Amino acid sequence: MQVSEPKLIDGGAAVELTLGGERHRFHALWLRDNARDEKTRSPGNGQRLITILDIPGDTKIAEAKAAGGTLSLRFEPEGRVIDYDGGWLARNAYDRNAAREPGWTPEEVKRWDSRLLNHVPVESWTEVTTDRKALGRWLAAVRRYGFAVMTDTPTEPGTLCQVAELFGYVRETNYGRWFEVRAEVNPNNLAYTNLGLQAHTDNPYRDPVPTLQILACLENSVEGGDSIVVDGFRVVERLKAENPKGFALLSGHAARFAYEGSAGVRLRSKRPMIELGPDGELVAVRFNNRSLAAATDIPYDDMADYYAAYRRFAELIEDPAMEVTFKLKPGELFIVDNTRVLHARKSFSGTGKRWLQGCYADKDGLYSTLSAIEEEGLLQ
C-alpha cells in the first residue's frame, strides 16, 4: 500500500497521510501503542511487550517520512524512530467520516434467503481432510453464510467431533461431548421426539452460548424430518426495514432464557434477542420459544410493543421465503453459526429410523484456522 504526503497535525499529536489515494489521520499515542517493532512486540508471538504506562503521556510525533509502502515516524520524548507498513495502516484505519447504521455487518458476511437453496456451500469429507484449501473454502463459507454442508462423512458415532477438530475443539455441555437426536420416551428435550421444531438457535440459556453447532446424519429412512435453516441476520434486516421501533426494542432490551430439563441443571441467561455491538454491528441473534423465560426487563409502557415486535420477528422467521430446506442423507452433516443461523426440522413419521448426532464448537477456533489458511495464500 503506497504511503505519501505525511503531515503532522495538532502540534504532532497526530499525523495525516495518504494511503492508496485515500486520506487518513492517526493519533500519535495510538501509533506508538500499536508499533510493530521488536522492542514493542514479541517477534515470536506478536504480543505486546510494553504497557500503556510505559508510553509517555505527552508522546508526540516529531518527524514523519514516507518511502514507498512505509511510514517512518520519530516519537518524542523517547526519541525513537519506528516504521509502519502502509498495508497494515490501511487495514487498521479508524478515521471514518460517517457512522454506520445499527444492524450493519462486515463485508465478508452475506445475508441470504430461500434463494440460497441453489447455491448451498458444500464440501466432501474426503476433500477437507486431505486438502487444506478445501477445508479453507468450507470454513470461509461458514463465515460468509453462517452455514455449510459436508458430504461423504463416515457414519460411525462421534465422527462429527472429528469434523469439529479439523478447526477447533468440541464444546462439551450437560448433553455430553455429543448428543443423540432421535425419538425417545419421556425426553428431557423436545429435540428428542418426532415433533416438528420451530426454527431456533440452540442453548440461548447458556452464557456464553455455543457459537457453532454440527448436526450429522447416521440413519434417515423416515417420511419427513427435513432440515430447515434460516439466516437470522437477513430476518433482522427485514424487521428493521419495516419496523424500526420493533428492531430497537428487541435489540435494546434483554430477553431471559432458562433450561430446567435435567436433574441438577438450572441454566439461565439474560441477553437481547437481537444483539448489537457498541458500534451498532449486528453480533448475534437468540431465538428459542421453548427456552424463553418470563421477560422482566422491559418497561411496562414498552411491553405491548415489545411483544408485537417479537411476534413479527417470529412471523418473518417462519416465512417460507426465508427458508432453505433439505433432507440429510446418511453420511451428510451441516454446521451452523449458532449466533446467526436458526435451524428447524419438519415432523416425521413413526416408522423408519432417523438418527442424527449433534455437537457444539466455537467460532474462535474456526476463525483462527481460517485466518491461518488465508495467510498461507491458499484461498487467493
Gist of the model:
The chain has 380 residues and is an alpha+beta fold.
How much beta, percentage-wise?
25-35%
Main β sheet profile: 7 strands, mixed
- Using the coordinates above, name the CATH class of the largest domain: Alpha Beta
CATH architecture of the largest domain: 4-Layer Sandwich
Shape: globular
How many discrete domains? 2
Mean pLDDT: 94
The secondary-structure class comes to alpha+beta
By CATH, the topology of the largest domain is Double-stranded beta-helix
Helices and strands, in order, run as: EEEHEEEHEHHEHEEEEEHHEEEEHEEEEH
Distance between the termini: 18 Å
Low-confidence stretches: 184-189
Structure description:
- Helix 6 (232-242) packs across helix 8 (300-318).
- The chain is globular and about 80 Å long.
- The protein has helices spanning 28-33, 86-91, 125-130, 132-145, 159-164, 232-242, 244-252, 300-318, 363-375; strands at residues 3-9, 14-19, 22-27, 60-67, 70-76, 80-85, 122-124, 147-151, 170-171, 179-181, 197-200, 212-220, 227-231, 255-259, 267-271, 274-276, 282-285, 323-326, 333-337, 341-345, 354-361.
- The protein has two domains: 3-91, NE0471 N-terminal domain-like (2-Layer Sandwich); 114-375, Clavaminate synthase-like (Double-stranded beta-helix), CATH 3.60.130.10.
- The longest helix is centred in the C-terminal third of the chain and has 19 residues, at 300-318.
- It contains nine helices and 21 strands.
- It has 380 residues and is α+β, with helices and mostly antiparallel strands.
- This is Gamma-butyrobetaine dioxygenase.
